[in-house]
Every structure is written in C-alpha cells, then in structure tokens.
Amino acid sequence: MKITFLGHASLLIETKGTRIVVDPFITPNPKAANIDIESLRPDVLLLTHAHGDHVADVETLAAGKEVLIVSNFEITTYFGQKNCKGHGMNIGGKFTFDWGTVKMVNALHSSAFPDGTYGGNPAGFVLWNEEGCVYIAGDTALTKDMELIAESCPSLDLAVLPIGDNFTMGYEDAVHASDYVGCDRVLGYHFDTFEVIAIDKAKAKEVFGSAGKELALLDIGESLEV
Ligand code: NI
Ligand code: MN
User: Fold this and answer.
1) How far does the centroid of ligand 2 lie from the alpha carbon of residue 68, in Å?
2) Which of 67, 91, 156, 175 would bridge 62 by S-S if both were Cys, CB 3.0 to 4.6 A apart?
C-alpha cells in the first residue's frame, strides 16, 4: 500500500491496482501547485466530510466518470445529483470492495457543504486488505471513541491523524489518539495549509519521539509505504 501526501488532508492511496484519492483539495491549495490533478486518475474517492477543504476537487475528478465516491449517504447523494457515482455508508458500518474493506468510524467535528447543504455526520475511515490496515481520521477532536477502532478493526499499520490544531486536534492530542487506536506509526496531516493551523514541525516530531512514537511528515507529493 503506497500513500502519497497531496497537501492538507488529501492523500493518494495505491493498493491492489486501485487508485484511491482521499478528500481532494488540490486546485485551491497554492502549496499543492506541484500536484497535477489530471495525473491522479482515481478509481475511488474517500470523503470524510463535506467541508470545502475536503471536497473542492470532487466534481473535477468524478463527475461523468467511472469513479466511485465512498462517503456518508448525504455526501454521496449530493454528488449523485452532480453526475457522480457513489456508495453511501454511515458511521459504524463496513463494506468490502474488491480493493479492500472500509469501515466508517466516528469523528468529532462538523460537516456542511460550502453552499450550506447538510453534509451528514463527519467520519474517519479504517481501510484494510492483505497489504495492510490504515486509519484515516479525517477532521476530528481527540475522542475516546478512538479506542473502539483498536477493539473492532484489524491492528493498524499506520494512523493518519490531523495535527494542525484550531479546527481539529493538535499534535499533543494526536499522541493520545495514537495510544487509543493502538498504533505508534503516525502520518500527520491537516497542518500548515492556513496560518491558523501552522505548526512547529520539529517540536511535533519531538513530542511524538519522546512518547516512543514515529510522526511522519511528508512533503507534498512525497510517499510512504505501509
Ligand atoms: Ni472540516
Ligand atoms: Mn478540514
């Protein structure tokens, strides 16, 4: 499983010959100018919630194409009206696709589209197949519900956690989240895009390191393997 950071909370996951893009916010992000949206060619979009910084490029990538949007029912319905294909789910449910099993898990946040349409409940995803198991937290506060992930999913190889604070948990809380989900290997995201979520990256790595954990922070376009 190869995971490429596309900036902010956007990821490209390549697994079992399938290209999965998470929360595409690329063309509005000047920091992601090195990412060519045409090169992404996703088969699947995983969308955690309806905020603009998570869905900005959905129609560009999926409208009128054979791209499957996996998200909550409100979000797949919304994009269904914009000529996108969807597989609607809800919190606590899992479904096995030919490229992996997805479980939609709780996130403590909000979810409305930029046009004001109700976007259902925000979520995270646990994605697993024979190549590995990854938790993508989405935008969330630290919540004890994260312990349910350790209790109800295969053991995680990587936890992708927001660390930018202000809109989500910050990196200090993300250390606790890493404990709750039972995974010491963390990829940080949702930081530095905007001034209010700018972080001291060396300090964040130090806080993880002193807890015996690894915090990976990728440059935009850089990848890691699970
Ligand atoms: Ni959000
Ligand atoms: Mn966000």
Assistant:
1) 22
2) 67
Total count of domains within the chain: 1
Task: Tell me how far the alpha carbon of residue 23 lies from the centroid of ligand 1, in angstroms.
Answer: 10
What pTM was estimated for this model as a whole?
A: 0.98
Please list, in sequence order, all residues whose beta carbon lies within 8 angstroms of the beta carbon of residue 185, skipping any fewer than 6 positions away: 157, 158, 159, 213, 214, 216
Percent composition of the chain: helix, strand, coil (DSSP 3-state, to 5)? 25, 30, 45
> pLDDT by residue (tens digit) across 127-170?
999 999 999 999 999 999 999 999 999 999 999 999 999 999 99
- For ligand 1, the distance from its centroid to the CA atom of residue 121, given in whole angstroms, is 11
Which domain does 137 fall in, by range? Answer: 2-218
Tell me the CA–centroid distance for residue 111 and ligand 1, in Å: 7
